[in-house]
Task: inverse folding
């Protein structure tokens, strides 16, 4: 596995639900060590001064726990119900990751017209292998507000130039930020370049808005949210 593929693997394997992007920012910082000065705005977006992507990925959040020990959850970002059912998910708790699988009422218990619809996420739950809500709360320490991410490992496909993983939106943009800054590191130019990887894009472009106002970076941002290169 060459350096580029290893870097992409590290980026997509890192977990970064909106509001919990720290592990992805750490990967960016390791890759850009020595290239420029690092900073974070108050919301948490990663900035390297010396294009842009966003750190977060679509995920979920724990909403509540049923008496039977199932975890009800909310989407963070855009999800289509058909691709959620049967997903293996990791709930990020204070004690560590808890593996679960998304389930719902079985098809034979649904009305005919309901089988033809896209199931609403509100009708789904995560089965973590618990027998009661006490197990979920006390033994596993799962709490409302805990972030949830897909359990989808990086892999090279039969064609090794094609890669399979979660979170390509927009870790590939983060990789482009790093590669651009590396190539500019030893190239004389008259500009101050900001490489920006923003937080909470999936829930409203929040990091792009705060980054644009921080550290004088507003003058360096281009026409769209999250684009941060150019003269200052």
Result:
């Amino acid at each position: 596995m060459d350096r580029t593929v290893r870097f992409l693997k590290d980026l997509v394997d890192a977990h970064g639900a909106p509001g919990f992007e720290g592990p992805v920012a750490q990967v960016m910082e390791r890759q850009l060590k020595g290239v420029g000065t690092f900073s974070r705005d108050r919301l948490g977006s990663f900035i390297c001064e010396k294009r842009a992507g966003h750190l977060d990925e679509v995920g979920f959040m724990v909403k509540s726990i049923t008496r039977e020990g199932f975890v009800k959850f909310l989407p963070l970002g855009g999800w289509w119900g058909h691709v959620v059912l049967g997903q293996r998910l990791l709930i990020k708790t204070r004690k560590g990751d808890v593996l679960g699988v998304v389930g719902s009422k079985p098809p034979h218990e649904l009305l005919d017209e309901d089988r033809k619809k896209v199931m609403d996420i509100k009708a789904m739950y995560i089965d973590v292998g618990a027998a009661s809500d006490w197990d979920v709360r006390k033994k596993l320490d799962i709490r409302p507000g805990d972030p949830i991410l897909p359990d989808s490992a990086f892999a090279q496909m039969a064609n090794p130039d094609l890669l399979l993983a979660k979170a390509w939106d927009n870790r590939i943009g983060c990789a482009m930020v790093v590669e651009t800054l590396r190539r500019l590191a030893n190239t004389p130019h008259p500009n101050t370049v900001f490489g920006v990887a923003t937080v909470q894009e999936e829930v409203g472009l929040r990091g792009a808005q705060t980054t644009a106002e921080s550290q004088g970076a507003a003058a360096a941002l281009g026409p769209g949210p999250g684009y941060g290169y150019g003269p200052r």
Remarks:
- Residues 168-184 form the longest helix (17 residues).
